[in-house]
Design goal:
- The protein has about 375 residues and is α/β, with parallel strands linked by helices.
- It has two domains: about 110 residues, Response regulator (Rossmann fold); about 220 residues, Hypothetical protein af1432 (Orthogonal Bundle).
- It has 17 helices and five strands.
- Helix 15 crosses helix 17.
- It is elongated, with a radius of gyration of 22 Å.
- The two termini are about 30 Å apart.
- Keywords: Transferase.
Length: about 375
Amino acid sequence: MEIVLIADGKLTETSLLRKLPLFFQARLADMSGVSERAIGDASLVVIDMCRATPDGIKNLKRAAKSFAQLPVIAIVDTADRREVVQAASICTVDLFDRASDVDQLIRKIREKLGDQSHVEYPDDLPGAVREAFQQVTRTMDEIFLSTVSSSNMPVRMLVQSAKSIGELVSREGVGNWLRAVQLHHSHTCRHSMMVAGFASALAQAMDLSAADQETVVAGGLLHDIGKMKIPISILEKPGDLTDSERALIKKHPEFGREILKTRLEVPRELKKIAVQHHEYLDGTGYPNGLKAKDIDQYVRIVTICDIFCALIEARSYKDSLPPRAAVAAMKSLGSKLDQQLLAKFVPLVVTTEFAGVQRIPEDAASESLSRSA
């Protein structure tokens, strides 16, 4: 299931289309280049009429036969008769007021898609894993919705999802959870779910209390919440980042602080994880250059899992590292990480399955780590 987002030229900073790829498998098409091929087998089309040019509208009308049978939502200024008439001239559309909140648009799209938004699971993926994945996916959606609508964050759902992940990992290990996570369309969500799974495994290996385990896993799910303030075009960019883009991404812990600071319903421990998970024990991390005495155990656990997941994930611009190579890169960080925690983590991820993988050169490990941060 995929939706196509159509705009004339570059998206404006306030375009409602910007956040949709976090919630749906979506691709962007330029109005002047829309064709039957561009629409493909999409299930729904969303058109932003903002700044639509005559040439763009003309081309869209020519291509309308390729999507006229699909649900089409046109984002317009309902007080602007010209925009409304232009949208209605393309095909049968459902008008959506640009002044409305993006969460209303998301709910409208879900209503239109109905049962088409299901995930196709591998036949051998256990039912309990599917249920946990569905539960956590709903939780992540509600978390993201709360950040764009300024509603209360669903902390109870978050804690329950953390508990479900913990029970699943305790019962059958992290493997099937990771298989399910790969089915999510958003890299940002996949990464957070992976971090939560490994954090659960490590917390259990440390014999933490049930409450502490839930805190760590919930922190794993929430740790990258600050990325909600970064354009999807940068987060999901299929290539190397520019220096300015990388600098913006490095601000996501600070953005996390901005999002969470007024949310009294979010526990302090979770806020610290969101803000501090890129801090290093030797004071060389960011955003505040904290040192070991100021970085608690919850943060240290999530930091280790976050780095490991970033290293083993394959992206369009980099290959994944084998687990042994990822561990080698992390060991090379020395006093930056809690090496005692890392020693507990290693047996969970380096098994006989990877015994033949040799330690990669330190400079190669460092290069991969820097591109994954």
